[in-house]
Design goal:
The chain is built from 13 helices and ten strands. It is of the alpha+beta class. The strands form three sheets. A five-stranded antiparallel β-sheet has the order 3-2-9-8-7, with helices on both faces. The chain has a three-stranded antiparallel β-sheet with strand order 4-6-5. Bound molecules: glutamine. The site of glutamine has 11 residues, from loops.
């Protein structure tokens, strides 16, 4: 008798389309979709009813539903792409400057940084992201423009821009980020000027892209470091694995445990309401809905991803 295997049936592109449509219908029925971030006033105006979801498979197939081509603010999703760039520039030495453990605190908390003398817990909390951005601006005179170019290259969309109003709004209300950056500087953990790091950080967060752009931009993480469309090597397979591991353990701040429990895939969120999820070897899935839960993650986005991994019967577990 042939041994029993656990080989899974391949999900056809048309099936992904049907799955996404089913999820969008469920989300539409749900009246309560969290609260739009108000601490960055320029984000507070986005209607909570917006919803988009896009799947990009490693074989190039794509499925999309909702406001898939509407632009939204990347916010902390940018931290995945700056991490890739900083690893390219600084190599493994980067890990002397930033840790790899979940924080169990809010993304903009200062508490842990004080205990740990300015070595941020991981690259996805704000303190860690400032160290990563410092690495980029101190290696590369083009700084924030290089970050924008990287997002354009990975999404295959040269029209992607900074949203200067969001960047300005964030600078005006960015006292916590400024406090974090000055604290890092006081501990000798930033090489560049605090203002230069903050300026690049606020700009990277302000990048406006669509859900479709996001699903494409993350495709290398599902594909061993190789961009699905261009076949360019973006990072090594080993780094892609490690970035996925960091997303799994640190990508949703102090909600990583419940996200792993409910959804079961590496993912990164942003307060613009976007989430990028990765099923290594299979696909990326991007979702956007601007209403946030108490942890600062898209409320309907998390729910949609939970439905997605449940319906297709795939996760990393
Ligand atoms: N720009 C935001 C901030 O620094 C990013 C936070 C986020 O998306 N979690 O506060």
């Amino acid at each position: 008798m042939a041994p029993r295997t656990h080989r899974r049936k391949k999900v056809a592109a048309s099936d992904y389309q049907a799955v996404l449509e089913g999820i969008a219908a469920r989300v539409r029925e749900q009246p309560n979709r969290g609260k739009v971030a108000t601490y960055i006033p320029a984000l507070a105006r986005i209607p909570k009813t917006k919803f988009a979801m896009v799947v990009k498979c490693v074989d190039g197939r794509e499925a999309a539903v909702g406001d898939a081509d509407e632009l939204f603010s990347m916010q902390s999703l940018s931290k995945v792409f700056t991490l890739v760039m900083a690893l390219r520039q600084a190599g493994a030495g980067l890990w002397h400057r930033v840790g790899r453990e979940p924080s169990g605190n809010r993304f903009n908390s200062l508490v842990q940084l004080e205990y740990e003398q300015g070595v941020p817990r991981n690259p996805f909390i704000n303190a860690g992201a400032h160290v990563i951005t410092d690495c980029i601006v101190s290696h590369d005179a083009a700084g924030k423009q290089s970050i924008l170019n990287e997002v354009r290259r990975l999404s295959g969309n040269a029209a992607i821009q900074f949203d200067l109003e969001v960047a300005r709004s964030e600078r005006e209300h960015g006292h916590l980020n400024a406090a974090i950056a000055h604290f890092l500087k006081a501990h000798g953990k930033l090489r560049s000027d605090v203002d230069e790091v903050l300026d690049a950080y606020f700009h990277q967060c302000s990048i406006a892209l669509s859900c479709r752009d996001l699903a494409r931009a993350g495709s290398f993480l599902a594909n061993g470091g190789i961009d699905v469309t261009t076949k360019d090597r973006i990072t090594t397979a080993r780094r892609a694995k490690r970035i996925n591991a960091l997303m799994m353990t640190c990508g949703l701040y102090d909600a990583v445990g419940s996200f792993a429990f409910r959804v079961g895939i590496p993912a990164k969120s942003g307060v613009g309401g976007g989430i990028l999820g990765i099923i290594p070897g299979l696909l990326t899935v991007a979702v956007w809905s601007p209403g946030l839960d108490a942890n600062g993650n898209s409320d309907a986005g998390v729910r949609a991803l939970e439905l997605f991994t449940t319906k297709i019967g795939r996760s990393v577990f």
